[in-house]
Amino acid sequence: MSGCPSIDRLHRLEAGELPDQEAEMLLVHLPTCAQCTQALERVRREDLDARIVRSALADSTITPSDAAGSAATHEERKPHVWDIPDYERVGFCGEGAFGTVWVVRDRVGVHRALKTIDLERLRSANARCRESAALEVYCQHVQRHPNLIEVFHVGMQGHLLYYTMELADDDISRRPVRDTIPKNYRPLTLQRVVEHGPIGVDTAVEVLLRLLRGLSRLHALGLAHRDVKPANVILVERQPKLADIGMITTDTTGPSQVGTPGYMPPDGRMDLTADTYAMGRVLHELLMGGESGDFPELPSRVLQATDVWDARGISAVLARAGAASAADRFQNANQMLEALEACRRLPFESLFADLGQIETAAAEQPRSPYVPIAVAAVNALPWVLLLILAMVVVAKVL
Fold first, then answer.
1. Mean pLDDT across the stretch 134-149?
2. For tag attachment on the chain, is the N or C end more exposed, with fewer CB atoms within 10 Å?
């Protein structure tokens, strides 16, 4: 890469919109150029918070809080301090490098999951705020879907970007969370379900069909999720929902290092086909109880317990989803959804089976001894009538 990047390119870098290879080259160049470093700092100060607030205002269901918070201090970043208005912190869910997820209760007593992202820590680490760009795209374009997590509110409080989402069912009781948060609450994810061992084939395929319907909504909008895995599927009111939207992007060109090892395809292309690859691994883990080392191969014994799905068809879906080359994989979630639904044996095979049983039963039905006599009488009736008519004609002539 030659020369200094333009301001527009720096804006795209900060928004996470550049291809990863180009972004990595920029990040290598920036520390060596004081002019570019200063320009990037100006972009971050002027653009990042404004873009997040703009995204919050763009969706009618999302209302930002006051984004003009004062500069954060070390004390404000301590976990025990809570200064996000309108939400009472109830419990802790989990923490990442730059974000934390809490259980909160809003002003009307509804429990939500609230995620905070520390923008100062991101800036200090010279890291891109991928999640802010992903959140903006998700809130502006993705409408409600029963198998995609719903985001309710986006806001800024000082140095914290935060947003609220649906709260997962409780992992311990395996029940939805309503009025009271269970002690030692932990979100119920598909990963936790898998850890208990393989589930029934019929249930596993049904779960994947629902997730593919949600993923199809993203793909129809040109969005790649890029982090499909059982740990990022939560159950809300026992409905599987694709969650963790922090890596969603519209940029699906070229190889990328973004994603979770093990769920990324061998060719490194983190595009729509990478999502279908990961969905194949999810189905494989559901059927194998978390053992996915032989993916995409599936032992024939696994599918013997179902009369609903065709074993060869399921194996073919897994083989295509797990192909090493992007050109050989399902090109989007809808293709994989249609292929998986085509593996359903019912109702047509059962219909043919029922017809065969009817025909067999009719053939085996015992026949009355008088039936042959009745049949012979009916067959002889026309000849008898013809003979009588001939006799009448002869009698008249004589």
1. 89
2. C
Half-sphere exposure in the Cβ direction for 245 (13 Å, CA): 26
Most confidently predicted of 275-279, 290-294, 390-394: 275-279
**111-115, 118-122, 282-286: least confidently modelled range:** 118-122
All structural domains of the chain, each given as residue ranges with its CATH number in brackets, are 189-350 (1.10.510.10)
C-alpha span between 76 and 55 (Å, rounded)? 25
Please say if the pLDDT value at position 172 is more than 70: yes
The encoded tokens of residue 25 equal: 């080259």
**Predicted confidence band of residue 64 (pLDDT cuts 50, 70, 90):** very low
Alpha helices in the chain (DSSP H): 7-15, 20-29, 34-43, 49-58, 119-124, 130-141, 190-195, 201-220, 272-288, 311-321, 333-341, 348-364, 371-397
Please give, one letter per residue, the 3-state secondary structure of 304-338. HHCCCECHHHHHHHHHHHCCCCHHHCCCCHHHHHH
Given a contact cutoff of 8 angstroms between Cβ atoms, the answer to whether 298 and 287 are in contact is yes
Query: Could you tell me the two tokens for 138?
Result: 């998700």
Q: Stretch 312-317: mean pLDDT, rounded?
A: 94
Report the candidate in 272, 269, 271, 266 with the shortest Cα–Cα distance to residue 296. 266
Instruction: Give, in degrees to the nearest 5, the angle at Cα 208 between 141 and 319.
Output: 110
Helix (H, G, I), strand (E, B) or coil at 165: strand
So what's the pLDDT on residue 305?
Answer: 78
- Strands 88-95 and 99-105, by their bridges, are antiparallel
Q: Is 254 left (phi over 0), alpha (psi -120 to 50) or beta?
A: left
Angle made by CA atoms 234, 236, 238, in degrees to the nearest 5: 100
pLDDT in tens, 234-288: 999 999 999 999 888 887 665 666 788 899 999 988 899 999 999 999 999 999 9
CA separation for the pair 338, 231 (Å, rounded): 25
Residue 36 tokens read as: 């570019």
Measured in whole angstroms, the distance separating CA 80 from the mean position of its chain's CA atoms is: 34
